[in-house]
Amino acid sequence: MTGFRAFRIYDQQGTARLETLRLDDLGAGDVVIRACYSSVNYKDALAATGKGSILRRFPLVGGVDVAGVVERSGDACFNPGDEVLVTGCGLGESHDGGFAEVVRVPADWVVPLPAGLSLRDAMVLGTAGFTAALAIDRMEQNGQTPALGPVLVSGASGGVGSVAVDLLSGSGYEVVALSRKPDSDGYLAALGASRVLDTGSVVHGDAPLEKAQWGGAVDNVGGDTLAWLTRTVRPWGSIAGIGLAGGMQLNTTVMPFILRGVSLLGITSANCPMERRRKVWQRLVTDLRPRQLERMIAGVVGLDELPGVFDRVLSGNHRGRFVVRLTDH
Asked: Global pTM?
């Protein structure tokens, strides 16, 4: 196989560059994928800029997800020409990732592209969309229903938040969006939010319990926002904890959990069992309203444009998802 382009990170300080690699430069795996699309996630931006301890070895090709076409496979489950995707499993953290024109991974990380989903749309959703669907799936397994009341989505204009708003509203939930971007009201309303609250309007008090307002919540922020949610979710509601842009510390009490039966569910897409992974991807195909996908695209970029995109993702000065186009399909 001839050389291919890849975005490679060299140290914890974020020294990175676009370079030409050969297959032998990549980590081991039985499936070689001609990558067509990837996406830029918050975790990718932290790793590539050195602002977060994400990578487990160096040098490493970044990118925690990818969609493409199988070039060769040592596993009978996959054949050349199969359309597939990979999210999590250490991709872009401990194993060379999706910011490359060729990706090699173990076969048990690979998900066949669900019928009805294109490779491009798979990465419009990407890790963020998968995480949103996984969060809602876990909440419902824990008893969440529309009857419990409105579900608040924090960080609603970001990648996970956008998909969560759409999936929840399409599944019959009343959705209240929480965002710090004043120009996102129309965008979030179009995705299905019944109301949009300004993050600045949320009062971070120190009472152990406050007025119970939300049937549940999908939290992409962490910190004070997550603490406030524990105090304001109604009895038996679930909070799916996903992000930490607002801080890693959680200052709350046991009162919401022992007096209201509130559940705090930790959501990680990295180590989701394969059977569950396939189920959640199928839910995305079934429940997501296709017309919304184009609204969720912040931009389509090439490998050489990644450094500028990382800064935008970390600043939060965008809404939706950046899709990385790698090769033609």
From this structure: 0.93
